[in-house]
Amino acid sequence: MRVLVTGAHGFVGRHLTAELQSAGHEVLGLSRPQDCPNPGPSDRIADICDRAALAEVIAKDPPDGCIHLAGIAFVPVGWKQPNLVFDVNVGGALNVLEALREHAPRCRTLMVSSALVYGAANPERSRDEDSALEPQSIYGVSKVAMDMNARLYARHHKMVVMTARPCNHIGPGQAADFMAPSFARQLADIAAGRQSPHLRVGNLESVREFMDVRDVATAYRLLLERGTSGEAYNVSAGRAVQISYVLKTLCEIAGVQPEIETDEQRWRPTDRQPTLIAEKLKRDTGWSPRFALEQTLADVYASVKNGR
Hints:
alpha/beta; Rossmann fold; UDP-galactose 4-epimerase, domain 1; 2 domains; 7-stranded parallel beta sheet; 12 strands; globular
């Protein structure tokens, strides 16, 4: 299958490209010009917010499959630039769907949404795909709109479109803006003597589920190959931990025990996100996670330590 991956040079996109290629698929990577300054033969250049440029790319080389990753993934951006988040996460996704409808109507398409569509009310109650969508952030609302639009296109236009709702995922190569690589970077600097033994953190009491990005990439590939059109799929390993456990594990991996300092800029109120039920994903595709959280964190630390 020739698969168009939007956001191919991002954190998840790089892992997904490797996953698809290992399964024998040809990958066409769509990126913005600034994200791919030296495009190779398999790269396609267009901003998803530029409808004409995007349509031209897809019309010139129609894909058999598409996995839409491109978008704003950092939740706090939604509170600072809400219009931008909607322009990219909703408008950009609609541009992808419209270009495929016009120029590759038989393309199998997976649109990547988020577990944050469910919100965090009653966190002790796990969520399946039929649970109410109750987002609690601008980012979450944008993902609800994208998710619903995608499944509407499947019904109304008879396109083969599915959505994936993944929990938090981490792994080698993630930007230092995010929690696990931020901890890992500071610990690596402390271990190497480049930083005093003081580690700055936000709230360590919140509870999150963290999956390995490589398991997520496998889920996306299997959904593209085997998923049912019009369906939403949770992507989850079903294990939630306190952020303090992530830090403790990374400290053990690094072999340092720093003094913990609270950074007000990183502080968020304590909350617990509900875990997701991913039985439909497992039933329809045969997917199961391969990486334990502890192995993922070891790989994150090694990646940061080695500058990858």
